[in-house]
Structures are given as structure tokens and as C-alpha cells.
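Revision sheet: C-alpha cells.
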Amino acid sequence: MRSRREGRRLAELTTGALLLVLGTALSIIGILFSPFLCVGIPLLVVGVILIIAEGGQVTKAPPAMYPGYPPGYAYPPYIPSPPAQPAPPAAGAAGPPSAAGTGRFCTSCGSPIATGISFCPNCGARVAP
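Predicted:
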């Protein structure tokens, strides 16, 4: 497989050869028709210059490649630790249940509210049912 640089050099060499052939053909035709001679000779000269300038570079050997990186160190695979066991539920406090057994609290003062009450007994704020 050709590298990009080598492909470009080969394209320039091909361009030079094409100009050389085209310049030669137009120069031969230019012997009979002089306007073709004015175009053919400059193309011939440019083609020769391109072949000489780029021709030697195509035949050069590519530079030596640098050695690759050595393989990395082997690491052991990552094994995640098992999840921690949840703590056992704490024993409930022994005592009589409060009026806040329903879990409702006043949004203004935070005091517990019994079921079915529309106003807070502590601050008097309206509580959503």
C-alpha cells in the first residue's frame, strides 16, 4: 500500500510524463502548424523539468520506521467489591403513639396535626386536607 507522500510524488511524475508526451505531440504537429509549436515546446520543457525534479524522489527508499512501543504492563482485572449489607432496622422507641401517627405536620410551624383538622392547633395556619 502506498503512502500519501509516495502517491503524490507518483502523481507529479505522471503529470510530468503526460506533459512530456503532450509537448512532444504538439511540437511534431507544430512543424506543420506554427501555433502548435508555440504551445508544444514550453509543455515539453516543463514536462522534462518535472520528470527530472520529481523522478529521483520516487525511486528513493522510504525512511526506516521507528520501532513500536513495547506492550504495557499487565494489570489484574478490576473486580468490584460486593455491596455493603444494609443495617438492620433500629428497634422502635417504646412509648405511646403521638397524635402525629398519620405523619402530617404544619407547614408553617412544624407541629404534628391530627387527621381531619383543617387548621394548625399551634399557630392557626390553614393546612391542606
